[in-house]
Amino acid sequence: MPAAAFAVAASVGIALLPTHAQAAGSIHLYKVYYDSPGSDTRSNTSLNAEYVQIKNSTSSAVQLKGYTLRDATGYKYTFPSYKIGAGKTVKVHTGRGSTSAGHVYWGRGAYVWNNDKDTATLRTASGAFRDSCAYNSTRYDYKMC
Predict the structure, then answer these.
(1) Entry's Pfam families (predicted)?
(2) Which residue from 13, 18, 55, 121 lies 20 to 30 Å from 73 (Cα-Cα)?
(3) Any residues with CB less than 8 A from the CB of 42 and at least 6 apart, and which?
């Protein structure tokens, strides 16, 4: 924040608190693309168009090995050894594929994320809560968290 803006805010008694992105940074849910385009055919292409995107807003790379991603039903994806770079995102695709920069694959043959409502929950390898993102809409195909 520019010093002048801070001085004005302070002079009128406005407390300025950092926003989520301005804080020290975190590993957090960024987007849930819960309704892949077209008909739900369970093809691998359709399954992989359903994904959750996780963002590293810290200033350092973070090892995600053991982190888990769950839906409200309890389907669980556990990260293999995967390092997410500072400021980068990774998509957890529902279907099968080969891990690459920015992409990991759950390996499922069925959809995980309900097309109307669900909740994605991210936990650390030790089980500590990291973030969650809920949606309740058939109007859109995705939810920005």
Answers:
(1) LTD
(2) 55
(3) 109, 110, 111
Q: Give the 3-state secondary structure of residue 28.
A: strand
Q: Residue 67 is encoded by which pair of tokens? A: 């982190």
Q: Show the domains of the chain with their CATH numbers.
A: 26-144 (2.60.40.1260)
Q: In what order do the strands lie in the sheet with 76-78?
A: 76-78, 68-70, 117-123, 129-136
Quick one: CA torsion of 134, 113, 143, 79, rounded to 10 degrees? 90
Q: Is the pTM above the cut of 0.70? A: yes
Q: pLDDT tens digits for the chain (145 residues)?
A: 444 433 433 343 433 333 344 346 899 999 999 999 999 999 999 999 999 999 999 999 999 999 999 999 999 999 999 999 999 999 999 999 999 999 999 999 999 999 999 999 999 999 999 999 999 988 889 999 9
